[in-house]
Fold each of these.
Amino acid sequence: MSPLPTSLPTSAVLSRRTLLTGVGALGAGLAFAGCTTTPQPSGAPSGAGSSVNRTLKAAGGNFGFPSPFAMPHGGVTAMYLLFDTLAWSDKDGLTPWLAESFDSSDDLTTHTVRLRDGVTWSDGKPLTIDDVAFSATYLKANPMAWSIDTKVIQEVVVTGPREARILTQPYANFARNVLAAMPIVPKHVWESVTEPGKKQDDEALIGSGAYRLETSDIGKGSYRFVARDGYFLGAPYVRQIDFVPVSDEMVALRAGELDVASASDNTPADVLDQFRKDKAFGFAEAGGATATALYFNLSQAPFDDPAVRVAIASAVDRAAFVDRVLGGRGVAGNPGFLPPTNPYYVDQSSVLPRDLDRAREQLNGRTFTIPMVVSSTAVRQAELLTSQLAEVGITLEAQALDPTALQARAASGDYQAALLSFGGLHSDPTFVLGFFDGRRPAGRQFTKVHGYNNPAYNDLLDRQSASKEGVRKELVGQMQRIIATDAPIVALYYPNRTSVFRTSVLEEMYYTPGGFAGGNPGVMNKQVLITGATSGTKIRS
């Protein structure tokens, strides 16, 4: 097992084209504008897929080593370029991917998948139904940083050369939450690996995805993915994807260093207006599926006291964040946590409206000085929150961290209070409301609410996941009421999502309804990168 290098070659995965000679060349090689033409990968499929060698440049980041088991929470977009799933989410809903078809029994306990014929791994070996069965059991025993409900799997029975039945406890939305999120991994690579997170070599990146990792500088957040030979759908529409580290995505997009950029909470409206006037750019826009929230560590005083949490929630002016931080481009946080874009949303604003008298009553003359960790990109938000809580005698001492360090602290629970931003709030309740499941271990998911463990809530979480739609919606409404009453966190606001892209590379990009891969809210859905279309698996010519 080889250690993780700073610049990662992937010669053992497939024969490697030498595009770059080192880290310095990588930085220079990524600074090109627009849609570029690069030499066609040797042995690229002919007569299927796109015939143009498009390159897309997107913002780099903390993707880590992109195997399913070594990647950090933020590495899912890159990992799914290498590893496919049985189903996938596009603009119109779920579509079969590695599976030819799938269905679930009426009692939600038996889920049958039928595998496509002729799919191969990137090392040329066939992908079989045994790989599917192995993946389900192996990922249950070795969970990823990205939350997938493999724990509900009880048994996998291979019933034919390309068919298997996955037996579970009663579980609604299994196809979206598991089949469209669980990466299928090669049995011949992983079956003898007992510590998969430590396997960080070329073999660990053998997947069935449309791309292979050609070069990377993991420390800097730079990655280059190129189309691999023999992909079952044909040569992908976008042949090369470069993830480039930049300090400001919109500035980098204008300068030609990126082909797609996502607006932040702090992006001025006039910057977006300039792009709207330029016909070279297109827009992907959607309502809020991300949130900025004040997290409490309920295992530490004073947040083990519900009165303190209710006081803080009552002192916060959520509407002021929408006006002063977002410039009106978003909506105020719901005390019940789910945003209006989630189909299970129930408005809980009447439970904890802003009420300074109530806040002071709950504090009963007590004052607190509380350390709070925040992202270095959220200074304005921290300042506004600090000024609001000062009105009731609570002093916040903000410590700014880079986003990677903040996520690590949040995942481990190493904080008293934290100001966090995250996505996936439009996804299935089993995923997003699982943040409050006190039975989940710390250390993997930075959105976990540490120290909160309400047995009544946990029971509702289990019951809703096993219920059909009408009953399920009622139970999820009860869960939101508990969150609003207990105030384990304070959802401050949900910003609208806006991404700008260069139409010479892709004519359209979109935000996936409900997110992709179990709730990812970003615009880099691999379906549009592979097909050049917004739905289905047919690749544009």
Amino acid sequence: MVVCFALLVGLATFVQVHNSRQLSETRAQVAHTYEVAGELHEALSLVVEAETGVRGFIIAGEEPFLGRYDVAQTRIGPQLRRIQELTAKNPEQQRRAFELERLATEKAQFMARVLAVAREQGADAARQLLLTGVGVKAMEAVREVIAAMEAEEERLLQVTQSQSQAKDRMSLWISAILAVLMMAALLGAYLLIRFHVAERRQAEEERDRFFTLSLDMLAIGKTDGYFKRLNPAFTQTLGWSEKELLERPFMEFVHPEDRAATVGAMEHLSKGQLLIQFENRYETKDGSWRVLSWKGSPQPDGMLYCTARDVTEHRQAVAALEEARHEADRANLAKSEFLSRMSHELRTPMNAILGFAQIMEMGNPPEQLRVPISHITRAGAHLLDLINEVLDIARIEAGRMSISVEPVRLREVVEECFELIRPIAGQRSIRLEGGDLDCDRHVLADRQRLKQALLNLLSNAVKFNRDGGSVTLTYEEREPDRTSGMTSREFAQDQRLRLNIADTGSGISAADVLRLFEPFERLDADRRGIEGTGLGLALTKRLIELMGASISVESEEDRGSVFSLEFNLVQSPMARGEASAAGTSGSAAGLIGSHTVLYIEDNLSNLQLIEHVMIHRPGVKLLAAMQGSLGLDLAREHRPQLILLDLNLPDIPGHEVLRRLRGEIATREIPVVIISADATPGEIQRMLAAGAEDYLTKPLDIKKFLSVVGKHLNSGNNV
């Protein structure tokens, strides 16, 4: 609307200027016409004056008449040139002006000849020359030219006036139209302004309504330390009336301990910077304190727009949660201390009981003592199993169970478990099928805990089987749904392997399956005289889930049961490392001299991977130890230039192996590189602080591994 109005004003101004210019041009044309006419009249008068002077001299014979002639002759030339200048832009009038000059010149020449005759031959001869009519014809020609020029100027004047009148009428119409448009524009502007005023008033009303009804505490303050406006939420939260809050400096309501920080926040706002998060305590009318969380925005006029939220309950909840966390930490610590003490207090007397019972068995006791001693040995072994399982479950619940998840070759673990179970199954003629598992796949698991879980399941499959029955182990690979929108990489990473252990026992009822994995739940094992603690399946389930796998069971009474374990399939460490090892084989020349490296690792696949990588390092001799104690012995005996250490070992924890290496003079200077599946920052920092030189996480980045090995073997830290 503003642009439209400006265009109309500009157009009206243009029309006005155009009309003024046109009027000036018309006036100039009229003045020009009158000037030309006046000059023509003056020229004619001069010609007539010259002729009159000559005729008067001839008639009267008096010289004064010639004065008029001389004056006229002197002025006629400039007068004719002036006429030519005035008609320069009109070719026709210019032609007539030059014609007038020619005729006036001829007339002047004729009069000069008459005057000469009058002086030489007398007045009569001059009169005879005048009577010839030559002068009259010349005068008539002059008059005709002047009349034609005057007529042309009159015509031009009429044309100009006619055009001016037409343009005046057009300008009048345009002015009228512009006036109407401007009135319409003014009316539109008025209506628009009125609409915007109403809209702004509505927006202000909505803002005030929002300000009043907002659940948050909204405030408008100033850098002078006073509130200027507050919404009712302040009164509802603090109990003070709005008048009380506005009359006093708001710093008086702030807790004394928070005033320095509040002053800092005010200085922050006074510099024109946003206040994103700030908390302080405000006094309520009943004397209590509320924690307010503030956000503020400074304005150019010095006003401060702020919002506050009462976070008192939230802060109390956070404090309570923190206290609960500390309490849980204390309880967890107490539980850990209890586990450590119980492990010692229970195992110490069991060591004496079982030790002396075994000595008594070895000493060929009398027949009447053999059965009691056998009962003592079996009961002690049962109690020891119970202690171990209880402590394992307690460790899991306390978060102290050490799990090292990495690629494990399933076939090796199954073969080891079948070898251990086969003698027990043979006592009852139970067939074991699937021990030579035709599966060379790797699953993501902790090898030691996987073996423990499989042994529990296979042992149960034998114990709860019928004589002459069978235990069958099978596997199947399961792929995710290809229609689920997975990428090819996600699809490859989500492949799983399902391991099934089926027995031909009496089966489990549907009601009992629901209680199967509860601790100390033995179902009808006591009635059937089957030994056990009732903790095996509970522990197995927790171990399997700790490794990121799952366990399920299907059973039918009188038909047997099938326990299924499902693991994530992973690529073999050998296959994953082969390409990297081959791609970096050219860097073998970077190692100077021959070196001995000791790798302490209980996972055979990981050992084979490092052995395969070191094939490309002919100058490196690799020693392997699958137990921590053996690794310590090899370190003392061979004094290797580098030790690679896994943290999850079957006999001694890796951190204890590191502590002993650093505590002995013979091994304290040997660099130790940790290779573990535990990638948590806390564990990495603990191992580095305990004396490890480097920490590599599984799966290994072979290039990085070779770089670290090369760095330490060439560093001059050889022992």
Amino acid sequence: MKRFLVTGGAGFIGSNFARYFLDKYPDYTVWVLDALTYAGNTDNFHDLWDNPRFAFFQGRIEDPVIVDNLSRNVDCIINFAAESHNDRAILDPETAQITNFNGVGVLLEAARKHNHARFHQVSCYDTASRALTVDGLKRFDEIQPGDRVLSVNPKTGFLEEKSVEKVILQDYSGPMIHFKSNRMDLMVTPNHRMFFTTPAHPEEIRIETAEELSQRAAANVVKGKWKGSSETELAVPGIGAVSIVDLFYLCGMFIGDGFVSIQKQNRPNKTGYRRTDYLQNCRAANGRFGTPIQRGNEEVTTSTCHRIFFDIPEKDKGRQRLEKTLNNLGISWTAHKGKAGEHIYFSSDIWAKFFLQFGQGAANKQIPAWMLEYDVLSLKALFDGLVDSDGHYRSGKNLPSFSTSSTRLMEGMVTLGFKLGYLPRFSVRSEEAQGNIDGRTIRPNLPAYMIFFRQENVSTEKRCASKVEYDGQVWCLKVQDNRNFIVERNGIFTISGNTDEVYGSTDGEFKEGDPLEPNQPYSAAKAGGELLVRAYNVTFGLNTIVTRGSNTFGPYHYPEKLIPLMITNAMEDKPLPVYGDGKQVRDWMWVLDHCKGIDIALHQGVSGEIYNVGGGSERHNIDVVKGILAALGKPETLIKYVTDRPGHDRRYSLNTEKMEALGFAPDRNFDPLLEQTVKWFVENEAWWRKIKSREDYTSFTKKWYDERK
């Protein structure tokens, strides 16, 4: 069981989050610490008192004694505590600074002291898994930032090469989700981001946690698409421009069943001269060569012949296409049958130099990286040559397989398979194994890889998922842009995931890395608290996540804020005070979407990162007010325009692409959610009337809005 300390948990978002967390995670315990100042209200979690996994403690986050006592018994602190009302912070900026900055410092120091292991801050793989890079398969301790991996763009479905930005390694003790079948083997933490498709929408890439995916009845592993260079000809040094399709097929045949033979032969030297000396000394004035008057000292001459062999029998499945390809390329070849077997060969020192890049000897063969950058048509020709040479098609199923004793070639074949839309896997064959393929007995003298290529969908769902306990290290990569890469476990490959009002006013959208330019004491104190969090992450290595939420609304919203104030005033037929012209723009988010965003960032985000959590529903304040009046059937004559507050941001909006890459998708249907909020306040009139009748509420609203007249 994991225990969380939710500070400020008696407020609007905190209480909704505590309820959301307890409902979603039956093995989690939530402790709430709240000072119960003006917005803290134990009525906000009236339905949680009887829950044995819930406890409430009254106290301030600036108090190091109570914070220390609670922190020593929890795994993680989630801080909602803040003096969160801009209007109050203008009247009393010192209180905002104490809570929003000093209080955060007390929480950070307690977390550092008790070594809080945010076990859930990164979605991770077990140590039996490896990443497929452009330089081959690598363990977590071999990967370096800057390595390139093959990644799928979740929006387009196309495969792209992306850089590794960070390697994350940490200790972990807890449950793992193991997806295991004869075509699937992946072990990840329950919060891990899984990329998948559904049978109903195979073109749409979706993202869920491993735990959520393990409960799905039907889901499939993602297969990417590939573009690549579409050139049709390639200039071979010393040969000229040739057809890429023909060249790639020939290269595939050579990699699988070809070799270069450099044959040298000593013959008697009739003149005694080396070739260069002979050309210089034995040419007559008329340009003809003759017998030299004086013989040189060389007794023998060594001649060198470069021959390229293809060990392809006459009745082999690829023999006919090989002969046609050689003819297309203008290569004069010879067929030979003898004790060493049947083969095709031709002599050319230029072609011999070209073929040397594919490696000499079965254990050293490879696919050069430049070939894998071409389009599907070219890569299919390469693949056909490889399978026709040293591969096999299963009878009746057209499922290709390939055998090699070269690790580099196996890794290249896997990359090639992914780019052609296959889902590759491999097994390792021992030296003692032998087989019979197309009438040919195969007796390897080295351990070999058998690589299988499947085009049909591979399931990743609850029938192949189980939860297992794990105690050891887990790892993940931070991958540029797409945040996923190809991972291998026991020879099976899967595309899987890797693992925000402090800005100011904007005409566009704020991103996480934009400079902080707060315009009010509340925002400035919050920004200072965030910078303190960053300092503890960098200086002490404390596992931290910061989320920045857009304007939030929903049940239990304190009735000083715009939406609940307008609802309750309208219900009382009181004036609805609107700042300035009411044209300020805010991005609104449903409170449970905000809770979901924090949950995703908490479990899937990378330590030290900042995540914008937004609703994607921008509205002018005046339009929100009019929508409330319409939902209540009240006249717009209740609207009263008042003097704008100092430092009021004209527009506030967040860029949430970073969160969306983690799978966050807020409900953007603002109007029905606003109506649902209005309905809640109508049905819970006793809750808000109790608050609005308190002296601290009435004195603040009177003082603040009297000055706005």
Amino acid sequence: YSAKPSSLQGQVLDMDGRPVPGAAVTLSDGSSERTYSCTSNGEGIFRIRNIVPGGYSLRASKDNFEPYVSDTLRIESAALLSANLRLQPVTASSPSIKGPAGVPGTAAVPEAPDIGLAPYRGLPPAMAEAMLVKPEEVPQPSANFSPEPYRWTIPMPDWTRYGVEREPPYIQGHWYNPFNRNKIKGDYPIFGQRWFFNFTGTSETGLDVRRVPTPSGVSAAQAGETRFFGKEEQGFIGQTFRFSFDLFRGDTSFRPVDFRVRFTPAVNVNYLQTRERGIVNIDVREGINRYDAHAGLQEGFVEAKIRDLSPNFDFVSVRAGIQHFNSDFRGFLFSEEQPGIRIFGNLRSNRIAYNLAYFYLLEKDTNSELNTFQPRDQQVYIANVYIQDFLTKGYTTQFSFHYNRDDATVHFDENNFLVRPAPIGLVVNCASAGCPSLGIRPHSIRAYYLGWTGNGHLGRINVSHAFYQALGHDTFNTIAQKRVDINAQLGALELSLDRDWIRFRTSAFYQSGDDNSRVGVFRRDDTAHGFDTIVDDTHFAGGAFSFWNSEGLRLTSTGVALVNPGSLLASLRSSKFEGQANFVNPGLFLANAGVDFDVTPKLRAFINGNYLRFMQTEPLEIALLQRPIHHSLGEDFGMGFEYRPPLTENIVFTAGIDTLIPGWGFEQILNGKTLLSGFAKIILVF
């Protein structure tokens, strides 16, 4: 048997319990062979390691303090002991220390008090006998706490540490200050103990100047204009005010609310300036500019908690009314504010979250994209489940099912353009008995979507992905000119790596396309392979810093868009909000690379680049009566910044420039001019 070395640590304190730094601590067995020494640090803490077991004398000394000596220290094998050493300061009024029997001579060292040796926390129970320090007595609750019937309005003490006005803790709140305790921001009850009210006011100002292909139309703005493409410059400015009133019954931020009523009206004013007629309105007499205003109800719902499922705040609740819902991480399939009923909740300490939702859509105002009160005759059913830490920690996955029931209707937008059904292919001059008096043939869509998406990180790599399979049928596709079944896919993958203040990212996006080059009875099969969504709001591959994603491009000589604003899909759809899904489209492949810079905590910068390519061009060849059309769409580049002065989302300023350099295929269907856009957006939130 061989003895194992031990350790001693502790703290040198004065008689008032204050640390004594720089004290010399010595451990000696009375001979010169075994002597250990160290000096206490700035907090009075000392440590002595690799001590051979045995009997020792412990000494601590420092100038202006009486030395501390203990000759009764016994250290066992493999012990880890702690000790608090207290030093008595030397004062002028201290009595003279005498030698033995009061005879002057060598000063006698006073007897050392108990040093309170105790085993270090975490030792096995067998060593608990070495504990010599009496544990501190915990005061009774009445000594530390006092009952307060209404804890929400306990006054905060004045903070005068610096003696000048700054932003210190405990600053007094005001009704107009959302950053401190505020009754109308839900910081304490509006009445009773659990009823809270939260008002949120939002102002969003957007400016967009762009150059996009614009036909001169049947009545050119310039006299004698004969070119097909006219003046391409456009400018748009929009201002939206949202006022959210939220009354809820609850307790703390961890506990889901028991009952909630929310009401959010919105007002929008917008102005569009172009240089050609027939753009702002189908009636060329309306000129080249348009001013419009609209008010809508964006939220208006009641929410109630049905039941608590566990002590860990697992719950199930129901919400009915106009509400916002985004069905995945990046807004690929459905992102809307529409009336509906949603049952939602979580399980296993919020590791699993789920939604069961039904929406009956309202028509949108064309120019503001706010809700109207006119029914859309479209219903959406959604079921999804989110699982956190799926297979590995830090990764969340989602499985979903969507059903889009879009009934056959005829609809003209606020500018008198036909948007439903899409004015392309065989849609007008209908002579069958089922056509309405306008001679327009409507059609209905029954589309089912099976989805798997994910977001999180695998080690150091950030991952975001999505895959959707679309099935169903369209009773009469206007491009195919017949009933078609649906079999289409969407895939997206983004990988990024954070290195200090820079994020490097790359991504790929795939939208399947339809490859049939014939229509009607001559079409080779009855299946449409072009993917389209319900109502997407995609934030992927650059988002606002991508021309293709942020700017809509109309397909000239038709009434549809090659791509709609806020979407990546080359869907040939008349309108993202007011039109119907179209599954006979060219599809898209996109390869992306970008860099995000956290320049400061307040300022972020973005650089983005995309390569775009049609998957199939047959639908374009049918729609434009033009063949062949190349697959190359072009390259898309953007850069910009986001600035948040108060380090919160209360003030956000975003600006950037985007450009699209046309490829051969784009030049064939539109023109070869480089497209440009510059934008700025200011968001203010109270």
